[in-house]
Amino acid sequence: MQDLNPLAIELNEQLRASSPAVFSLFSELGKRIYLPKGILSQTAEAGIKAHRFNATRAIASEDGDMMHLAVSRELVPTLSLEGIYGYAPVLGQPELRETWKTHLLKENPSLAEATLSLPIVTSGMTHGFSLLAELFVDSGDTLILPDKIWGNYRLIFQTKAGANLQTYPFFDATSGFNTHGFRERLTNTAGEKLLILLNFPHNPTGYAINRTEAQRIVDAIVARADAGCRILVMIDDAYAGLWYDASVMHESLFGLLVGCHPNVLPVKIDGATKEEYAWGLRVAFISFGLGAVAMQPLEQKFSGLIRANTSGASQVSQTLILEAMKAPDYVEEKQRNYEILKARSLKVEKVASDPKYAKLWEVYPSHAGYFTCLNLKSGNAEKVRQCLLEDHGIGTISLGETELRVAYSCLEESDIGTVFRTIAAVVEALYGMG
Ligand SMILES: Cc1ncc(COP(=O)(O)O)c(C=O)c1O
User: Fold this and answer.
1) Which option is the CATH number for 6-35+90-326: 3.40.50.20, 3.50.50.60, 3.40.640.10, 3.60.140.10?
2) How far is Cα 405 from Cα 301, in angstroms, rounded to an integer?
3) Phi, psi (5° rounding) for residue 218?
4) How is residue 196 annotated by DSSP?
5) Against a cut of 0.90, is the pTM above it?
6) Distance (Å, rounded) from C-alpha 201 to C-alpha 407?
7) Which one of 168, 243, 307, 323 is least enclosed by Cβ atoms within 10 Å?
8) pLDDT, tens digit (0-9, with 9 covering 90-100), for 318-334
9) What is the CATH number that goes with domain 331-431?
């Protein structure tokens, strides 16, 4: 085992004093990581004091501005050269971080009374989860997840970080979120450190929880924390804001978890990815319900981790998100997209749940996000998927033996009837249930 660097020891001591739960949840790497006082701090110092010549930055300049290629600059003519080509700060552009925090406070009324950190910018949500895995997960640590998940969690937490995944059935007998199963899984999982991952609106089903379910989830977590367990609760809010049904909660569970128990550390992972219709820009955020005293050393830990892998998220992507969020038409354009997705969701609900298909599949409840998911009553989802693709040119995702996920987010409303009619025809042809 390596000796800890004195800077890491100092950060650990600060966190042990200000936020013992954070410190006690750290992985071995989490304890070891720190940001060296090297090029970054010398560059920052020169940025303030080098009034004659600044020869610190590892960039090239010309006539007092950034050297660049006109052929790419012409493609984004209105942005500043720094906003396109400059290195972004390791934790992200300060104004973007402030703007995202304002966005979170506006969208999450439960955070009104809470302390919220400045969000840390990551290169997409996947990078955010990878950072959390590095900081908090040691091989053998237990991560509690439902049985229906976005598959990348497995690669990040199980394959890469070596976590021991413990699952519970996502739905209960009434097709609601299985709060009882969740509580039981928590109660029956031994150990003094647990990791939990929750995702609503949900991939792959499109399910969103209501207030009662949310409170039951919080109560179950608090009960386990009361029994002496330290718990990291990761809230995947990839599809935040895309709620189409008045019966479900229109804010993140994160707001209800902040401050719920001293042993519980909630962390919100969300992004421009889906919320801002900017999938490939790779801009996402990690936020904690922690104040400055805990965040200062924690940010140093994140800075060390980010510096050691991506070194920072794309500058031009961050600039595009920030400028879009400040634009006069921003709210109106987002509302327009939301209305289109909502109309598709309502159409899917009507079409897929048509009684004439009841013998073929069960439709999981879907109130939000991008997806609906069919549970085939007989047959094999992968066979159906292949037939849809090969014979009809329709792409879907098969999950497990019987589940077929349809991303209606990329279907025109007028095509939804055809898609489900074709799926029904394929199931009937393959399994003879006509
Ligand atoms: C539930 C969920 N979380 C996270 C992500 C990934 O986000 P990103 O593309 O920002 O890595 C996705 C993408 O499909 C998702 O469905």
Assistant:
1) 3.40.640.10
2) 38
3) -60, -45
4) E
5) yes
6) 13
7) 323
8) 999 999 999 999 999 99
9) 3.90.1150.10
Please name which of 326, 301, 265 lies closest in space to residue 120, comparing C-alpha atoms. 301
Tokens of 349: 């609900």
Q: Is the CB of 121 under 6 A from ligand 1?
A: no
Amino acid at 147: D
* 334, 270, 106, 203 alpha-carbon torsion, rounded to 10°: 70
Dist. CA 155–CA 157, nearest whole Å: 6
**Cα 272 from chain centre:** 10
Predicted pLDDT at 433: 60
Residue 202 Cα: closest atom of ligand 1 = 1
Query: How many Cβ atoms are within 10 Å of 147's Cβ, its own excluded?
Result: 12
Which residue from 122, 132, 145, 152 has its CB within 8 A of the most atoms of ligand 1, so it is best to mutate?
A: 152
Q: CA angle at residue 101 from 299 to 265, to 5 degrees?
A: 50
According to DSSP, the residues that pair with 407 across neighbouring strands are 371
What is the rounded CA–CA span in Å between residue 111 and residue 387? 47
Cα distance from N-terminal residue to C-terminal residue, the chain: 65
Tens digit of each residue's pLDDT (9 = 90 or more) over 353-404: 999 999 999 999 999 999 999 999 999 999 999 999 999 999 999 999 999 9
Torsion on CA atoms 425, 426, 430, 434, rounded to nearest 10: -10
Q: Which residues contact 225 (CB under 8 A, 6 or more apart)?
A: 231, 260, 261, 262, 263, 264
Distance 125 CA to ligand 1 centre (A): 6
Rounded Cα distance, 23 and 390, in Å: 53
CB atoms within 10 A of CB 1: 5
> In this model, does residue 434 exceed pLDDT 80?
no
Q: Are 404 and 423 in contact (CB under 8 A)?
A: yes
Ligand 1 near 125 CB (within 6 A): yes
Q: Is the pLDDT assigned to residue 276 strictly greater than 70?
A: yes
Exposure string for 33-70, b = 16+ CB within 10 A, e = fewer: bbbeeeebeeeeeeeeeeeeeeeeeeeeeeeeebeeee
The domain spans of the chain are 6-35+90-326, 331-431
